Amino acid sequence: xxxxxxxxxxxxxxxxxxxxxxxxxxxxxxxxxxxxxxxxxxxxxxxxxxxxxxxxxxxxxxxxxxxxxxxxxxxxxxxxxxxxxxxxxxxxxxxxxxxxxxxxxxxxxxxxxxxxxxxxxxxxxxxxxxxxxxxxxxxxxxxxxxxxxxxxxxxxxxxxxxxxxxxxxxxxxxxxxxxxxxxxxxxxxxxxxxxxxxxxxxxxxxxxxxxxxxxxxxxxxxxxxxxxxxxxxxxxxxxxxxxxxxxxxxxxxxxxxxxxxxxxxxxxxxxxxxxxxxxxxxxxxxxxxxxxxxxxxxxxxxxxxxxxxxxxxxxxxxxxxxxxxxxxxxxxxxxxxxxxxxxxxxxxxxxxxxxxxxxxxxxxxxxxxxxxxxxxxxxxxxxxxxxxxxxxxxxxxxxxxxxxxxxxxxxxxxxxxxxxxxxxxxxxxxxxxxxxxxxxxxxxxxxxxxxxx
Length: 453
Known about the structure:
The chain is an alpha+beta fold. The chain is built from 17 helices and twelve strands.
């Protein structure tokens, strides 16, 4: 065994460490950390954590030694009041059983049936838009993805404007605030924030329990994710999900399932507005493949460039800008870095995605990176929009299908241009969002004429 190497440390302030810089501009700090090396130490107040800056080390943490790592204590403190012990926060044997039970609901053949739902809600959104209309694109995308996830999850109609949509927004907003704190406020303290969180969670609990009770009583398979999860049986021991497990998984999918796709679509429309040559190529593909009709699941293999646009969007603007882990035993990485039990590791997805060593001209939005030849030549772990290893996002296939179909439906009808006074700054909260929103103008477009053959 080689001698222990102490990783370089980010500069910081007495007692506070790098916490002020991290809170002020996390993304800049993550990019700067790469200059110090593959594995970098920093202090967040009194807490020590490490930043993972290379695909090789990301593979070691997320795949090769995944069993030695759990989700972090801070993440659980922030999210467990809302999502309980769902797949996002659970660990160990309990997580493995939950994953086995939930996996069939996300099988490719199963989610293919949801394509029409995705397109229908996107089409209804397009019908509400008109030429020269100012749009809050972030709000619009969150609205359509919330409708999609509620319909496919438990066959319900939820909008951002109703009580349920507002409760989800409250939970996500307060979770964002809590992630920024060095120390968490105890849940039992009756602060205004805690009261708002509890009221929102209580509403969602009552709603979801009502769906579970109704579905168990009727024994009806409505073709949604909830029906699949109720019917799922663990092949290893015959177990089924309890009401508590169902509630936690539904909350996890409902909260995170629409947020990540919404921000991907928001960034996609922004990137297209800044790169007219990419936008023109996308429109050409949509006109050629669809000829003005709505897309279907069967069209996806032909929407090659549409997929490239989504992939490149998630490279430059990954919704999950980092992945955090906490070792449950002492761990040695790269045969030289020793990490103690309970210390926090942050896989720098945002930084790896923008690293010139892995993506030449990395700041440029270039969907042509995603040719089969280029992808084959890539390091398997230089692109991590859904994480990697056993804990790779269970909904990745669902999300990719949704993003492509919604983009195809809207982009063949409209071009979006950035509002003249709109500043665009990526901002790290729970997901990677535009700090000042994304105000854009809708322009009705006509299909491009096809060349004569």
